[in-house]
Amino acid sequence: MRYLWLLLLPSVCLASGPKYSYPDQPQLDDEIRQIYHDIRAVGGGNYSTSSMTLNGLTASSATIGNLTSTNGTITNLTSTNGTITNLTVTALSGVSLGKVRQIQCGKTATDFSTTNSAFQTTNLTVNISPTVATSTIVVVACGALTNNTSGQETDAAIFRGNTNLCDATFGCGASRVDATGMGLVNVLSCFVTGDAPATTSATGYQIKIKATGGTGHFGNSATQNMCLFEVGV
Amino acid sequence: MKPLANLLIACTIADVLGVIAPGATWNVRGDSYAGIEWQDSIQAKPTQAAVTSAISSCQSTLDTNMSAKAQAKQIVKDTTKSQAQRFSALLVLLDLDK
């Protein structure tokens, strides 16, 4: 009986012994066993924590609520199936991503006519507020352009405010009727130019037309359209 | 200058302004009197009554011409008509389509 406690010793040791049992690593103490357990759990594909500092984490399946970096650099963020969803970046630098930052379009069904030989503002105007001051604004506009008098032409130009982005005389395009008796001939005309407004303020682009003689028309019972593409350089 | 109504399908304010105020400088937005932006410093802006009257006259001439054109087309295709009648109708068509 005096040596009975020797028979009970193994069960006492087991009750206060290691929390995790890894037969291949029997010599680890409790603290190392805990870390060993964590690493094995992550390696096994299931791990959840509210706060953790990681270096060199590779997981086949992981959901991360907030992925941050104290030095502002996250390198090699990849996904084995090629999909990273809901990645929101508040500020991004040092990378070259998609170039079209925004598109603004507008249209009007209001015809515009003029006998003025200086450029006159039509009803086709679209505004844009560039997100970056260094962006290029690509302007594309289409509408029916015509003149009612043989030998005369109607010139159309793209303007940013009072700045003509096209040729001072001929604009970005012209419509001319030369054949006597043809009357009004609607010519679907499209105009394209690139502009660097160097601002993030609201900027308006308009189509203006002028007539060398007769009456110049823009629209003439057809809808006129314009789209602005903000493109990153 | 050709008769205005020969060139048109419908008469607009921009069309008739060129007739009642030839050479004047103006803009028109849409097709209403309110859309006229008068820029000429020599000629006065035509009154709304004058513009309305001019449009009415233009439309009347246009309608007459369209009717005459339709009638002439029928005569040209009508083999019961004399050759002289059909030739005359053809001249009318050519004249209206100049």
Sum up the structure in keywords.
heterodimer; A: 233 residues; six-stranded antiparallel β-sheet; five-stranded antiparallel β-sheet; 11 strands; 33% strand; B: 98 residues; mainly alpha; disordered N terminus
What's the quick description here?
The complex is a heterodimer of chains A (233) and B (98). Chain A is mainly beta and 233 residues long.
Please report the total strand number of chain A as a whole number. 11
**What integer value in Å does the Rg of chain A equal?**
36 Å
Strand content of chain A: 25-35%
* CA-based shape of chain B: elongated
Listing every helix as H and every strand as E from the N terminus to the C terminus, the arrangement of chain A reads HHEEEEEEEEEEE
The overall strand count of chain B is 2
**Alpha-carbon distance between the termini of chain B?**
11 Å
Largest interface: A-B, 18 and 22 residues
Summarize model confidence as the mean pLDDT of chain B.
87
Unreliable parts of chain B: 1-7
Unreliable residue runs of chain A = 3-18
Order of helices and strands of chain B: HEEHH
For the termini of chain A, the CA-CA separation is 90 Å
Our count of helices of chain B gives 3
Describe the structure.
The complex is a heterodimer of chains A (233) and B (98). Chain A is mainly β and 233 residues long. Chain A has two helices and eleven strands; from the N terminus they run H-H-E-E-E-E-E-E-E-E-E-E-E. Helices cover 11% and strands 33% of the residues of chain A. In chain A, strand 5 and strand 6 form a beta hairpin. The longest helix of chain A is centred in the N-terminal third of the chain and has 14 residues. Chain A is rod-shaped. Helices cover 53% and strands 7% of the residues of chain B. Chain B has three helices and two strands; from the N terminus they run H-E-E-H-H. Chain B has a two-stranded antiparallel sheet with strand order 1-2. The longest helix of chain B is centred in the middle third of the chain and has 30 residues. At the A-B interface, strand 2 of A face helix 1 and strand 1 of B. Strand 2 of chain A pairs antiparallel with strand 1 of chain B, so a sheet runs across the interface.
